[in-house]
Queue: 2 jobs
Job 1
Amino acid sequence: MDSPEVTKTASTPSAATETAAAASSIGSPIVQESPFSNYLSNLSPIKPVKNSRILPGYADLSSPPLVFTSPHIVSKCEASSLQRPQCPQKSGPETPKDNVGISSVDVPPGLEKCDSYLSSKFNVDSEKDGDHSSYTKEQHCSPSGVVDEYLSEPVDTECTDCVHSANPITETEPSIGPRGLANLQTIVLNADTDKEAPTFALPTSGQGSSNCVLSSDGLLYETLSVQNLHANEDYYDHVEAGLDDPGVSQLYRGMSRRCLQFEEAQGIGQGSVPAMNSPNSSSDPMGLRLPFSSAGMENSKILNPGIAAPSGKRTMINLTRGLISNRSPNHNSNARLSIPKRSGIGLHLNSIVKALPMECNVNESMKTHLSENEKCSTQLSNSVEKITHAEEKMLENQVVPAVVSATSDSLLTMKSVSALQSLEPNETPPKKRTLSLEQCENYNELNQSSPKKRRKKFTPDGDGCKRCNCKKTKCLKLYCDCFAAGIYCADSCSCQGCFNRPEHEDKVLETRQLIESRNPLAFAPKIVHQASGVPAVIGEEVNRTTPASARHKRGCNCKRSMCLKKYCECYQSNVGCSSGCRCEGCKNVFGRREDYTIVEEIMSSTTSKDGPNDIADEKLAGVDHSNDLFHADSSELESPAPFTPQCQFSEHGNDAPKSGPFSTRYLPSPLSHMSTIQSDSKTSSPTQTGDSLLAEIDCRDMEFTIAEMIGELSPKLDPISGICYLSPQRTASSSAVAASPSASKTKDLSTNVPRPQFEVGSGGTHMSSSIRWHGLPVTPMPSLGAGKMIDDVLMEEEDTTPEILKEACNPIQSVKATSPNKKRISPPHAHSKRLELGSIVSGGLKSGRKFILKAVPSFPPLTPCLDSKATKLPPTRKSNSQQQGK
DNA sequence: GAGTTTGAAACT
DNA sequence: CAGTTTCAAACTC
C-alpha cells in the first residue's frame, strides 16, 4: 500500500527483486522471495510480478457480477478501431526489427466470452534483442468462462511457458474465425526466450499459466521481467513518439497520460503533471497516473500492491520510479518490477498499454538494456507489425465478435497495436505500437479525466485535455471527470474545494471505495472494446473513428440529444450505441443502437405498415439505410419484414403483459416490437458489464444466430421446433424486456423506438429476413435477438465455446447477474446446447456457423433464460408502464 | 461569459 | 427499485 516505499523498491534493484517477490505472490514463479523483498513488496505499490497470475483478488473481482461481468474478448476487431486516425501511431522508426515476436492469441469461442484472454508474451532479450520473436496466437478460452474472471485475471508475463513458445506466429486456434469470435491477440514479444521472458498467457484458458492477468477492472496486469520492461519501454517510447507525431491524436495522448505520463517522463507531453506526478514522474516516461485503480483498489492491491496502494500519486510516482529504476543501472537484473497494469478505472485501457511498459521487470539487464530498449522497441514494433498483419488477415477473414472488456482493453492495447498496424497498415504501417482507435477512445475517456498531464479528452480544447470544473462535489464524486477517471485533479482544473488531490489521498481513496462499494464498476472504464472484426453495429460504417467494437458499458440514456451530442456518453466516447443503451431516438453516428437499426430496417423494408412511432420515424429518417448493416443486405432489408417470428408460448403468458402487444404476432408497428426486442437485449444483457460485453461480443454471432434462428426457426414454427425456437426468442425478448429490471429498458420498450418483435407465428419472418439478419452486422440486433435467442434458446455454435459461453450465455446467469446495465450476455456462441433445428442450421449463415438450438425446452423450465424470462416478464410490464408513464 | 439544456450520478 | 434531485458538462446565445 505504501506507495512511497514502492518508489524505493522501484528505485533499487533490491526493490525490484522485492517487487518481484510481491509479484510472486501474485503468482509469479520467478519472483525472488526474501522476507525483505516480501516486505518491500508489501510496501511498494508496485508489485513485481514476473508472472502475474491471476490474483485471487481477481477471482473475487471477477466473481462479482457487477464488475466486469462480461468479459469482452479482446477482439482483434479493435484492430478495426485502427481506423482511428487519431491514434497516433508510432511509426516507423520503431518498426523495424522484430526481435520480438508478437503473438496474437485467438480467443477461443469461449474466450471470446471470457474475452480477456490475451496471452502475450513479452520476451525480450535485454541483452540481445529478442531475436526470436515468436509470434504465436493462442486461444485461450477461459475455461472459467467468466468473463469477469478473465478480466480480473492478471496476466503473467513470464510464462514463456505458456503457450507461446518460440513458434513464431502461430495461431493456436484457428477456430476463432469460424465462430467469428474475436480473437484475442496477444502480443508476445520474444526476443529470446529469456528465462524470464515473460509471456502472457491467459490463465483462463485453462491452458494454464498466463502471464497476463486481467483484473476485474479490466486492467491487464502483466508482469514483466526486466527484459520486458525494456520492451515495454520501447513500446512506450514508440507510443510517445506517436504522440509526438502531430498526427497523433490527442486522444492518444490522453491515453498516454493515464497510462503513462509520457509527457513528464519524456517530456513529450507537457510534462507537467502537477499534482499527480511526482517530481520523479517527470523523468519517467512510464509514469503512470493511477491514483486509483478503478475496479478495484482491491484488485490493484492484490495484483499490484504497489500500485493499488495508496494514493494515486504515489502509485503513479512509484510506478514511474520503478520504471526509472529499471532503467537505472542499479536495478538488479533479477529484480523485477512487475507493475501490474492497473486498470484503474480510468486507467484500464491505458493501463493496458501502459501496463506493458509499466510492467517492467527491473533487471540489471534493464540497465544494459536500456539501450536495448530501443532495439526492443523496434523489435516490438516489428513484431507488432507482424502480428498485426496476421491479425488483419485473421480479422478480415474472420469476424471477431469478441467483445473486449475494459480489461480486454488492455489486452486490446496489446492487440490493438498489432491490430492497428494490421488494420491500418496503409495508414501507418510503420507504427507498430499504434493504439487502436478503440484504445484511443478509451483513452480518451480515461484521459478526459486525467488531470494534469493529459487529460485529454477530446475536447474542443486544443489539447483535448479536459479539466473539471466541479464546484460542489469537491471532485469526490463521479460527477467529476477527474475523479471518475481515477486521476487527481490537475492544477489546470477549475474545480473548487477540490479534494481530488494527492494531499487528500486518503479522502479520495475512501470516497472511492465507498463509491465502489456501491457500484464496483463505478470506476471501470466506460467503454468496452468489443472485438470487432466485424464492422460492428449498424452505425459502424458511420463510425469512422471508433471501432465498432467499442461500446459504452452502461450505455447511454439519452432522451433528447439523439445521441448526437456529447451529452451522450457513447457519442462522446466516439462509440456507437449498443443494446445496452436506453437512448431514445438514437442517431449516434458511431453506431446506433441495434434496435434502432433494426427498426430502421424494418421500417424501411416494411415501410411501416403501422406508422412507426414518430420517434421511430425520426430514427428511421435519421438512419440511413445506407448505414451499415442494412446496406450490406440492402436487398434483404427491403424485404418486407425481417421480422423475426415470435413464438407464442405458454411463456408468453408470462410475457403476455408485455407482449400484449407482442403477443400479436406482428406488432402493429414493428418498431414497437423492435423496441421491445432491444429492450430485451439490453435488459437481458446482464447488467454486468462483462455480460453485456459478451453480448456485444457475440453480436455478430448473434446476428447469425438470429438470422439462423429467424430464418430457420421462423419457418419452422413447428410446434416443436417452432416452439423451441420461438419460445426462446420470444420469451427472451419479451421476457427480456419484461425481465429487464432496468427502468431504462422500460423506457426503451415503451417508447420511442418501437422495436419490431419477432414473432414466429407471424410467419412474417422470412427466411430471407432471417438471412438478412445474418447479414446484418448489426450488433444490436444480434445482441438483442441473439441475446434473447441465446438466452432463451441455447444456441451453440457447432464449434463450441464451451463453458465460457455457456456460462456467459447462461441466460439465467447472465440475466441474473444483473449488472447495473442489465445487459444481457448473449451467449452467441454458447454452444452448449443447441436444439438442432435439424436442418435448421442455415448453411447460409455467413459465419457458416451452425447453431443448434439445443433443446430449448421451449418452455419455462428449460433454460434459465426462459425461466428468467417468465419471471422477468412482470418487471417488463412495469418498466413498460413506467416508460409509458414517462 | 452567462444561461440553458442534458443526462449521469446521487439521493430518497 | 423507481423516482427525484443534484451536479457538472455540453451546448446555445
Job 2
Amino acid sequence: MLTHARWLTLVDVNGSHSTSTVPGSGAPRRSDATRGAILAAARERFATDGYERATIRAIAKDANIDPSMVMRYYRNKEGLFAAAVAIDLRLPDVSGADRRQDAGRILVEHFLDMWEDNEVLTALLRVGVTNQAGAERMQGILRDQLLPVARQVCPDPEQVPARAALMASQLLGLALTRYVLRMPPAVGLARAEISAWLAPTIQRYLTAPSP
Amino acid sequence: MLTHARWLTLVDVNGSHSTSTVPGSGAPRRSDATRGAILAAARERFATDGYERATIRAIAKDANIDPSMVMRYYRNKEGLFAAAVAIDLRLPDVSGADRRQDAGRILVEHFLDMWEDNEVLTALLRVGVTNQAGAERMQGILRDQLLPVARQVCPDPEQVPARAALMASQLLGLALTRYVLRMPPAVGLARAEISAWLAPTIQRYLTAPSP
DNA sequence: GAAGGATGTCAACAAGTGTTGGCAAACGAT
DNA sequence: ATCGTTTGCCAACACTTGTTGACATCCTTC
C-alpha cells in the first residue's frame, strides 16, 4: 500500500521537479524535498554514467546530502534505481480508424518528444544494457506499454508480440545511436527527417500484411 | 609500427582461437598462448558483464593466469579492451548492379551471421553504452565500415551519412533488443522473419528517394 | 516544557578495484 | 655452462565501493 502510493508519487514527480504533494497520495513528509533531490540526482547520474559508475556518493553530493540518507530512504542502490526509473510512456491512443493509418508517424513523434525532455529513458537504456534489473524493467515496458499499442492497430492478435518487438527494435535503435552512442550522423538528423524516414517503417511493422 | 603489427595479429586471431602465427606479422612469442587466452576471456567477460563489472581479476582467473600478466601484456584495462574488441565486419560488396537491389537482404543476413557467432559485437555494444572509449570505437565502425557500404548503393553522396545512420539504427536496435536486452518477443523471432521484415527497411533507407 | 520520532552528519567497516614491484623458474643464445 | 631475457606468481599498495551504526539536531505532539 505504502509502496504503491510512493510509486504514484514518483511518477508524478517524474516530469517536473516540483515537490508539490499530490492529493490523496499519502501524507507529505518533511523530507520530501530531500527525497526529490536524491531522485533527480540519481536520474541524471544513471543517465550519464550507467549503473556501476553512478556511485551513491556522487549522487549524494549532487543532492547536497550525506550518502547515508540515500540508504535510509531507498534501502540500497537497487532500491534507489527502481525508484528513480519508474516511468509511464503516456503512449497516445491510436485505435481510432483515422489515427490507425497515421500510427507510425504519431508514435515516432511521441517517442522523440519523450526522449528529448526525459533523461529517465536514457538512464533506463544505459542501465538496462549492463544490469539485469534494468533489462527486466525494459522488458516490462515493452510488455505493458508497447504491446497494448500494437494490439490496437495490428490485425492478427497472434502477431502482436512480434510486431511490437520490431517496432521496439527500430525505436530503441534510434535512441541508442542518437542519444546514447551519439553517433554524429544520427545526432545530425533533423527531427522532421527522422519522422519522415521512420514513420513508414513503424507503420509497416504494425499494419502491413506479414511478408 | 609495432602497434600496427599487433593490431593485425589481433584481427587475425579474432575469429578462431588458434594460436597459429601469421606469416609476416611479427615474431611469434612464447607467450602467444597466454595472450590469446587472456583475449578470449576478456571478450567473454566484456560481452556478458560490460566494462566495469568485467574485472581484470575475473578475466585472469578465466584464463588461468595471474592478474599481473594482463597488465604486463596490455598495459592497463583500457588497453586490454582496445585489443579485445578489434573487429572487422567483413561487409560484403553490394556495388554490383544485380546485388544493389538486394542490398537490404544481403546486409541483414550478414549482420545476423556476424552477431550470432561473434561475441565481440555484443561486448562492443555493452561497453559502448557506458564507456567513452567503447562509444568512440562504435562510431569508428560506422564511419569506416558501414558508411562505405552505404556509399556503394546510395544515389546522392550528400545523403550517405544520414542513410548509413538510419541503417545503423535499425540493425543495432535489433541487436540490442535481441542479443543484449533479450526481450522475449525479439528473441523468439525466426531468422527468416527478421530478414523478411528488416530487409525492405534497410533497402529503403539506402536506396529510396528521400521522403 | 518534555517526550518521541523524523531528519541529518560523521566516522568507520569490509570487500573489491586497478595497478605495481620484486623474485623464482624457464628459456634461448652464446 | 652461463648470461640476459622472457614468462609467471606472489604480496602488497592506494583507492573506491556499498553499507552500517552512533550521535546530534530539529519538529511535532502532548
